[in-house]
């Protein structure tokens, strides 16, 4: 018998769940043809929550860079989208992607300031940077100053077309975000990011370009946050500095990731659905609603330390997007070599004294 090792990433359960997800995406793509407009608005809201939480999870859960200032890029994406649509005459739906791109590019010089800080100082520093963005935009009268303004570039588009186009764009952004993050985490660069998260000094000693990888992840997370912000405000039709650069966005992202499971692709998805449902049902209760969110987060961190999806993964083996590698031992019968023509069998070749 010979022993062989096989690297396995997926399981039959993950393959079945992936097939179900494809069917669900195909069904969701047809929603504007038969669904209600309120359903599409709800999906766009969930999509924005999920994309923003996914980018925070990539930055903190996989990269170890805990930021509480990602709302800087969320608001920046929204304002760039509005400025291009209202003043430059660019199609607002195209401006969504351009706003995300600008947010990702601005993250590069911002990172030179943020990366001078470590640990808790990095988290507080990113919050300060977000406040600088908020105060700067509040003093720009062209975009409404502190009171904000309305997206007027969509006035010539009827409501049904606007809602269906926003919905399809949100669905495409969700699928693209999941696919890109999943493929990245399965690559060598994804392993390098996990090594940096676990021990930055050890990763650097193994030849990993730590600074380059952290900059790339920070820029990608900013791009995703800008995409979520631009998508949110193109559906909301109005933007203001307090709404766009509110620290609540990052607080809610942290809540969603912790509830669903940090360091897992499925975690932000589960957390976004739970947060949207709670927001839909209990947001009218004011401060009591926020207290309830805090208590729920405390309960989950105490009894489900790896989040709800992490608990389900450990107990039942559910993995929708498997990224870990597992070595599976397989045994097979060793094939004996065929005897050469004219060769004497081993038993016949023994001397008489050996067989006596």
From TrEMBL:
Write down the InterPro entries for this protein, in alphabetical order. Answer: ABC_transp_permease, LivM-like
Q: How does it sit in the membrane?
A: Multi-pass membrane protein
Query: What keyword terms does UniProt attach to this protein?
Result: Cell membrane, Membrane, Transmembrane, Transmembrane helix
User: What ranges does the record list as Low complexity composition bias?
Assistant: 341-356
Entry's localization field: Cell membrane
Q: What is its main location?
A: membrane
Pfam families associated with the record: BPD_transp_2
State whether keyword Membrane applies: yes
Which residues does the annotated region (Disordered) include? 335-356
Please list the GO terms describing molecular function: branched-chain amino acid transmembrane transporter activity
In which domain of life is the source organism classified?
Answer: Bacteria
The residue ranges crossing the membrane are 44-65, 72-90, 96-115, 165-185, 215-234, 246-265, 285-304
Q: Does the keyword Transport apply?
A: no
Annotated Gene Ontology cellular component terms: plasma membrane
Question: Which PANTHER family does this chain map to?
Answer: ABC TRANSPORTER ATP-BINDING PROTEIN, HIGH-AFFINITY BRANCHED-CHAIN AMINO ACID TRANSPORT SYSTEM PERMEASE
Its recorded name reads: Branched-chain amino acid ABC transporter permease
